[in-house]
Amino acid sequence: MKVLVIGKGGREHSLCWRLNQSPTVWGLYCTGGSPGINQVAKPVDIAPDDFAGLVRFAAAEKIDLTIVGPEAPLAGGIVDQFERAGLTIFGPSQAAAQLESSKAFAKLVMREAGVPTADFATFDDADAARRYVKSLGRPCVVKADGLAMGKGVTVCASADAALAAVADAMETRRFGAAGARVVIEEMLRGEELSFFALCDGAGAVALGCAQDHKAVFDGDRGPNTGGMGAYTPVPRYGAEFEERVMHEVVRPTLTAMAARGNPFRGVMFAGLMVDGDRIKVLEYNVRFGDPECEALMMRFDGDLAETLLAIAQGRAREVAIRLSSRTAATVVLTAGGYPGDYARGTPIAGLERIDGVEPSEAKVRWAMEKTRVKVFHAGTATRDGALVTDGGRVLAVTALAEGLERAVTAAYEAAGMIRFDGMHYRRDVGARALGHMPA
Ligand SMILES: Nc1ncnc2c1ncn2[C@@H]1O[C@H](COP(=O)(O)OP(=O)(O)O)[C@@H](O)[C@H]1O
Ligand SMILES: [Mg+2]
């Protein structure tokens, strides 16, 4: 089949890399492309928000399956436009994508579905929101309703902080129209986890759990980023836990969405807060996480294209997911200054030491341990034939090995071979699960 991938970051590189290994794929295209993606897919010079252009391309090239990486085209209705043109596409409709694009909508669906989540109230009026904050008298979380690039949520230890967050979102409009409405919810404690399931509208199959690392500095300090690292599977959260999440979260959500007339197809990514025996949903996302996807793709065994095609065609029942029992760990290398201002165009050195034939002590050991290392390109470009940085998150260094300790060690060994001015990465990916830092 011929496959088109929308998006061009590290997530999409890992999807293209895995799709390129599908025996059934003989044509692979990716919007924008990147120096990494272009090694396995043909770049297509059409913007991810030019839906009409993408539909024309997919129809003309007889693309059998289109896979959408980022949330913005999904929230914009790319799936509806493809389906109207009779094209097969993996992802939720615009109405179903509201599970991510509107936090108020998501909370409503959770309530309808009986999915455990933090107590909440929704406000369109700043004064009413302030009265609610004052009546609470305990820590709370203020969330801009709409898409805010992961910046719209403020965890507030005090009422004053919450009042400021309300003003920021609803009056100063720091997140634009996304903050016109806010959800204010109870603050939960526990351990955060990402859970992924592939859904065909009626049924679903579990892809499993991953742990991400959002803050820019070690020990979860500093501002939040798109994601600094991930690993999967997560120790202590095995098959039994997965079945519980399918039963308490994924299937009830699918039933509620179908009952609304908005069946959910695509990746359901539930952000969970686990406290002892209790699982609560913090939020839904409607696409793969980045960099969780890089780690998951490293473990994915089998034909990814056939799997996603079956899901897109409503045949989840025929799908059996096979994941390597080994652990994948991803360490994201970022440009200095990210998530604030950062430079682009900085030369990157050392990749050939990982991918190329140059021997090294680490590579010999990886071969002996059957450890695999793959570097996904998140934000790179080619200038005068040389690889340079072209984004805040630059490379997602991923290793697959026996156990978390080995996977993390290999990912850090590989990261240590790469160099560019200002390069930053967290040194503590996986440290909590390995017992190297307090919970
Ligand atoms: N009810 C809550 N209690 C405690 N922390 C929360 C709560 N809701 C969100 N958070 C924290 O804020 C982060 C971002 O919130 P989330 O709902 O995932 O929105 P987004 O990813 O769109 O920014 C979460 O990863 C979590 O750390
Ligand atoms: Mg989140």
Q: How would you describe this structure in keywords?
A:
globular; Rossmann fold; D-amino Acid Aminotransferase, Chain A, domain 1; 8-stranded antiparallel sheet; 439 residues; alpha+beta; binds adenosine-5'-diphosphate; binds magnesium ion; Dna Ligase, domain 1
Report on the architecture of this protein.
The strands form six sheets. The protein has an eight-stranded antiparallel β-sheet with strand order 16-15-10-11-14-19-23-20, with helices on both faces. A hairpin with a 3-residue loop joins strand 12 and strand 13. By secondary structure, the protein is of the alpha+beta class. The model has no long low-confidence stretch (mean pLDDT 96). Helix 6 packs across helix 9 and helix 7 packs antiparallel against helix 8. It has 14 helices and 23 strands. Bound molecules: adenosine-5'-diphosphate and magnesium ion. Adenosine-5'-diphosphate (ADP) binds next to strand 7, strand 8 and strand 16.
Short structural description:
By secondary structure, this protein is α+β, with helices and mostly antiparallel strands. The chain has four domains: 2-90, Rossmann fold (3-Layer(aba) Sandwich), CATH 3.40.50; 125-180, ATP-grasp fold, A domain (Dna Ligase, domain 1); 190-323, D-amino Acid Aminotransferase, Chain A, domain 1, CATH 3.30.470; 327-415, Glycinamide Ribonucleotide Synthetase, Chain A, domain 4 (Alpha-Beta Complex).
